[in-house]
Design goal:
single chain; 221 residues; four-stranded antiparallel sheet; 28% strand
Length: 221
């Protein structure tokens, strides 16, 4: 008998592992944030957040999730005769609320970091890219809106390949590289890219912080 399922299993396995890793990272982020631990920075590191553009949306979802819990509990307890249904809905509601808080926490405690030797580009707990200043040709402040809402996008612009790490379908800092570089992401290593574009709430501050680094080509446009 010919087994036609291996391709499906090969696809589902990595997806489940990534989902489990993301779930664990979310709960760890919530734990760290709740304990109000300081960011693990070294001397000379400057953190730059990227939460402002999505904070209103996250706030609305968190508020709605909190409001829904007692409403659904009231509806289910009066409409569904099966008693366990109430507890199932209650657990799912609380889990959803904590998950949204965990997402907020994950973005809060994983900022971009400008250091003495390079730029650390992050997004929540799932993306962590390191770019040494010796590989940076220039930094530019430029706001861009992307047509897709995907956090990670790779675009071909002429003979240059660009990696977008966007927040709310936006980027605000262009990092032009001296040479093509590859980066490890959740789905594997990227093709060589010539430029990385990221979103920071304070792009001008990020550029100012980078001016004292070996990246002497760092300029604002």
């Amino acid at each position: 008998m010919i087994d036609t399922n291996p391709p499906a299993r090969a696809t589902i396995g990595p997806l489940l592992r990534r989902a489990a890793a993301a779930e664990g990272a979310m709960w760890r982020s919530l734990y760290v944030w709740a304990r109000r631990r300081p960011l693990p920075l070294t001397a000379g590191d400057d953190p730059f957040g990227y939460l402002d553009v999505v904070k209103p949306i996250l706030g609305i979802f968190i508020a709605l999730s909190a409001i829904e819990i007692p409403i659904f509990d009231l509806i289910v307890s009066n409409v569904v005769p099966w008693r366990p249904a109430r507890w199932i809905v209650l657990v799912l509601g609380v889990w959803g609320l904590l998950w949204m808080l965990g997402l907020l926490a994950s973005m809060k405690i994983h900022p971009h970091v400008v250091g003495d030797t390079g730029l650390r580009v992050r997004l929540s707990s799932g993306i962590d890219l390191w770019i040494p200043w010796t590989d940076v040709e220039a930094l530019h402040k430029r706001y861009r809106s992307l047509p897709s809402s995907k956090s990670v996008q790779i675009e071909q612009e002429g003979d240059r390949r660009v990696l977008h790490i966007s927040v709310g379908s936006q980027t605000s800092v262009d990092v032009r590289l001296r040479r093509p570089m590859t980066f490890d992401l959740a789905r594997g290593r990227t093709e060589p890219v010539d430029e990385v574009r990221l979103y920071a709430d304070d792009p001008a501050g990020l550029l100012r912080s980078a001016r004292g680094t070996p990246a002497t080509g760092a300029v604002s446009r």
